[in-house]
Amino acid sequence: MVIEEISKSFGDIKVLNNIGFGIHKGEFFSLLGPSGCGKTTLLRIIAGFESPDSGKVAFDGTDILTLPPNRRQANTVFQNYALFPHLSVFENVAFPLRLKKVPKSDITSKVSEYLKLVQLEGHEHKKPNQLSGGQKQRVAIARALINEPGVLLLDEPLSALDAKLRQHMLIELDQIHDKIGITFIYVTHDQQEALSVSDRIAVMNQGDVLQVGTPHEIYESPATDFVARFIGETNLFDGTVVSSVPLDKPEPEFMAELEIHELGRIKITTVDEVKPGQPVSFTIRPEKILISKEKPATKREDINLFQGVVDEPIYSGFQTKFYVKVRNEVLIRVIKQHAKYSDEGPDIIWKDSVFLSWSANDGYIVEVKPS
Q1: Fold classified for 2-229
Q2: Most exposed: 79, 138, 207, 277, by fewest CB within 10 Å?
């Protein structure tokens, strides 16, 4: 599928700003962004429920914008399930086939096949009000898939479920995708959901697509300040390039030194050449930072080292998040995983003096700002 130069306004409000990207056949592709960023509007344009002001949406090279929704080879799973309350589970799933006047014997076998796919065997005669939220969502997915669409559109399908059920359903959704192999386009505002199941993600904000990439690319190499902040937690600073020296490596890479007002000088490696005096944004993820009470015994020149005081530790069982005050003014977030059992309690506590260190390879220049 190819989305080209799609724009959409509602009155004076521009919802989509000339956006475009491609989605590979069979891909689990997520549209990720905060409420109001335009992701659901884009999904509705693909489905045929909205028309863009301009642009093109093509399936297999054919522009589908002139086709009605039922001829687009795309079925939608809605946030509120949209089940028929007076019909049984069987009849809800069978409904699209009855519209097509499929023979009764084929309907029975087909519905049984898709109820098995979503693990709802034995629930055929129940009405929607007798089902849990997760079961209702499975019915909606089976009904959407029974038409054998080329693309399944999912509009925040898990948002009405509680956290544990949402995680369980997410795994099931990924397994269903692996079994049937069609293209899934998944709308969500939850970055963990998108990172967990997507082959690629389009991060959106205020009608723009800021970055398209794999979960690893989006997380480790964010393209903008917004992407860095929105995907997981991070420490983000403005700085100025002091120096940049090419490294002796097969691929182009540079060792840069930045001046950051809150921290001082830091070292960072970058594949993009930056020049002294350029303003940049710098990010370092909390889990990339090593925290210790003893000064690290290292002579490596690419290690950034700072001393601070634990302002607040937040224990979460499998990890502790530390807010560390450096230079008496800036709080740096650090996450320490608990990989081993400790019967003596935490080794770093509130008000402890600590050392923070990270490799130049673990930081990232997010944006080069205009001078």
Answers
A1: Rossmann fold (3.40.50)
A2: 277
